[in-house]
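User: Structure tokens for both sequences below?

Assistant:
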Amino acid sequence: MMEAIRSNLRGRRDRASLLLWIVALAAATAPAAARDCDKRKLARAEMQYQIVVTDIEKGNFDGVFREMKRIYDLGFSPPCQRHLTEAVEKVSDMLRHKRQLELARKVVEEGLKYVEVKSLQARLYRELAYIYQKQGQLDKAKENFRRALKLDEQ
């Protein structure tokens, strides 16, 4: 399957082709539980995520949380929550680099409400710790790094 995708992409280097190749690669190499995720839901989440990215790139921060909420509201089962966690991490990182720290914190804290898998919660607490570090709230950063460590050990 992957060889067919590669041969189809030879000579093509546009963004859409590359994105399709990445999605196909992820689907082909993902664990069975991840492949069982609702493909329609994942596709909707990807489109919604791209709306968030566009808003951030345009500096339209007012719509980011509302658009992220639409992703959260899709309701991911535990085997599929990795996708949600990755989206939250990426959005938070983009917001941190744009110095939208309060919005990044709000996005991560809301994301935590929708993630049940302990190792994924650990990743989001780590992300929250980075935000607090950037804000100079070092005690809160330390507290969230400790939460992440504790969850990661479970």
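Moving on to the next sequence.
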Amino acid sequence: MSNLWDNSQFNTTRSANLVNWVINRKAIAIATKWQGLLYAILGHPQVGKTPMDGLTWDRLEHQTGKKIEAKLRADLEEVEPMAFGAPEVAGRVRAYNNNIFGNAEWDWTMYVHNHDIPKSDMDMIRGDEAKTESYITERLDHVLDSWHNRLGNDINTDQDQGADGYGGWPFAVSASGVYGTIDRDLAVNSNFRGNEVDCSSSDPSLSDLLSARLKAQVNGGNARLVLANEEHYQTLAEEIQNKHNPGIEPKDWVRFGGEYYAYGKQILLLEQRAPSDEVGVLDPDTWCFTLKEGSLSSEGVMRDPGSEHGFVLPFDAYGGLVCKHPGANSKLINCA
């Protein structure tokens, strides 16, 4: 691989390769260490892959085109038994179910950030490969931490996926509102609604979680991930402490570095940015974290012709978070 410095000239191509290697490495760490919801949705990094292979999570979905597109699961059909004999040869009533799927689409979220670097900083390390690589890596780590912070805020807010930010689970798992062009306020679209359990201004309890899980399970879900802010996490954790065996760690969560409790088939996850009056009870398999092909990338450190005496580290990311089956998920609402 070529050097970052060619005599006294900065090698922007080598810089771009280094920057994109760090982006892929750091993006994997973001989900593993900080974002429990994304960790549950994405699965695991594929064995044997390296950051040079790009983002290689099991269930990461890459899409192209001007919109994020998904088919939302909804209504199931009635499958009836039949008596032997005459009913077998009788005429039948033909019917088409319009509510099997709902075709939905969302705008991409595009994050663009230009991180400015004084030229004097680059002049001080000119020609020193190790210091230059360390300097660029530290700068990019800061940019990615900033993106992670925005991403974490977005996915825990009551907003739909779109140009203003990644979709939040509180909005997706709702019993009302337009979700991905589907109006859930209409009776015909009732199967696209999330399930809600009203805590009636009381603290959430294990009984409430069970009710939420059962509502999701009846609708074909497996809501095993519980997202709660600090206050609600503490309330629920205190209830399950005597039921939790700290010596048994779910194999799917051994790589996750955040705070959680395992209780039965459920993972109670601390999410500081979760709403103060809601707790998510989610089925990770029904969610889709998607990136546009070629996103999460940078052209590396380059001279900025628009500045007096500077370099710039550009970063862009196109992506989104959507739920393909809101009815398989639940949430507790009106928590004290």
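User: Anything stand out in the second?

Assistant: The chain is about 30% helix and 25% strand.
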